[in-house]
Design goal:
The chain starts with a helix and ends in a 5-residue tail after the last helix. The longest helix has 26 residues. It is mainly α. The chain has one domain. It contains 22 helices and no strands.
């Protein structure tokens, strides 16, 4: 586009039609089929993209393709997609090397059995911040939580609530979480900087959640049978976590973690030399969906922006906000609403990110803050919606292990961390002073 000002409209609510179409398709199919994952997200977004192409008569089809290319070729979008693939490579390698199981059992071996519930919450925090995936953490820990419940007599919903809470801690903070990657890249800040600010906001929530789980399980005398672990298999997680906190380039950290995982896996006999590339490949393949979705969303967002949709949302929030704090609440509400509709906090951040960036620029909000707000409130909603993958995985573990079904609604009252995280973030918005 040689003359962006001449082709990008100022404010137009009709430009939001593609997003509305996506939400109607996605939510409608979920309500009709009672399965919010019945319609693949990418299909709904492709239909939204087609609708976006049919709008804005001021641009020819070829000009609209250029607009899409501009959005897809944005430095943040390209970097985000490459990080997704690098994170997938690490995840595939470290899982094949036995790192997830060893990390769980090592943590449980260090915690007295009577503190098993608060212990599995803390282990969930470490595993999720190391693995970068809440669903992967729940898949690893939920069966153990069921076993803890059966061994101790503690409520099954309470034990699973602790697992989901711990999983959402890392989903929001991990340097290799797709939500963190999306939040950082869309807002244009460094991961280490966002981590430090985000950690300051959510640490009080994590501490209070741990205290609540501790108090609720006082007096228990459980006996837990642990699986085996190998301390060397935990090393890749520690390496990645330490390198990321130290501010080392994320690509360097992930590549180092992947290589270390391969070395550890082969040395400990958990990964056959012939399975090295297939393990890495399976992890990368697992990131294909979110990578392709990010590309399509970038195209839709740029077309919506060209037609005046982003500017319209900014004006609505601006008219409602009246202040920087109000704008931050607007960003929080925006990503929360999109996550409620999509049941996927990564997609919610990818979709909301460009709008949040415009709002933060308009009001002079630190990019670290806007990235933190996107990630925090996306995780808050994702950890509490009964049709989200996290609670569905947790409930499914009960039926898999015991044969007895459990509804996700039974777990929600015990998922304390996301609730406290929302409170902590709102306190941060209204009472903290921003350092320029």
């Amino acid at each position: 586009m040689n003359n962006e000002k001449a082709t990008y409209k100022q404010s137009n609510p009709v430009a939001l039609l593609p997003i509305l179409v996506f939400l109607v398709l996605f939510i409608g199919s979920g309500i009709i089929t009672k399965d919010f994952y019945a319609m693949p997200t990418i299909v709904a977004f492709l239909i939204a993209l087609a609708v976006a192409f049919m709008q804005n008569k001021d641009l020819s089809f070829s000009e609209k393709l250029k607009v899409c290319a501009k959005g897809i070729g944005d430095e943040n979008v390209v970097t985000m997609c490459l990080i997704f693939l690098a994170a997938g490579a690490f995840s595939g390698a470290v899982t094949a090397a036995g790192g997830a199981d060893s990390t769980v059992y090592l943590g449980l071996s260090l915690i007295p059995a009577k503190f098993a519930v608060v212990g599995i919450f803390l282990i969930g925090c470490f595993v999720s911040i190391s693995m970068g995936t809440s669903v992967g953490t729940i898949a690893a820990l939920a069966p153990i939580a069921v076993g803890i419940s059966e061994a101790t007599g503690f409520s099954m919903a309470l034990c699973l609530g602790a697992v989901v809470s711990g999983a959402m801690f890392g989903d929001n903070l991990s340097m290799i979480s797709d939500t963190t990657i999306a939040a950082v890249r869309t807002q244009g800040c460094e991961m280490s900087d966002k981590f430090k600010m985000n950690f300051r906001i959510v640490l009080p929530a994590a501490i209070v959640a741990a205290v609540i789980y501790f108090v609720m399980t006082l007096g228990g005398t459980p006996e837990i049978t642990l699986g085996t672990y190998n301390i060397w298999q935990v090393v890749p997680y520690i390496l990645v976590l330490g390198g990321a906190i130290a501010g080392i380039n994320v690509f360097v950290v992930l590549i180092a973690g992947t290589i270390t995982s391969v070395i550890v896996g082969v040395a400990t006999g958990t990964m056959a030399p012939g399975a090295i590339f297939s393990s890495i490949g399976s992890g990368v393949t697992g990131m294909y969906d979110i990578t392709v979705i990010s590309i399509v969303v970038a195209a839709v967002a740029e077309l919506v922006k060209a037609h005046g949709g982003i500017e319209f949302i900014i004006r609505v929030i601006k008219n409602s906000a009246k202040s920087k704090k109000g704008a931050m609440v607007g960003i929080a509400a925006l990503v929360s609403g999109v996550d409620l509709a999509t049941a996927n906090n990564t997609i919610a951040i990818v979709l909301s990110g460009p709008i949040a960036k415009e709002i933060s620029t308009e009001y002079g909000i630190d990019p670290r803050r806007s990235a933190s707000l996107l990630d925090i409130f996306g995780s808050v909603v994702q950890g509490l919606i009964p049709y989200g993958a996290q609670l569905l995985y947790a409930a499914a573990a009960v039926e898999t292990v015991t044969g007895n079904p459990m509804g996700t609604y039974a777990i929600i009252p015990f998922v304390f961390y996301p609730m406290l995280m929302a409170v902590s973030a709102l306190v941060f918005i209204f009472f903290s002073k921003e350092k320029q």
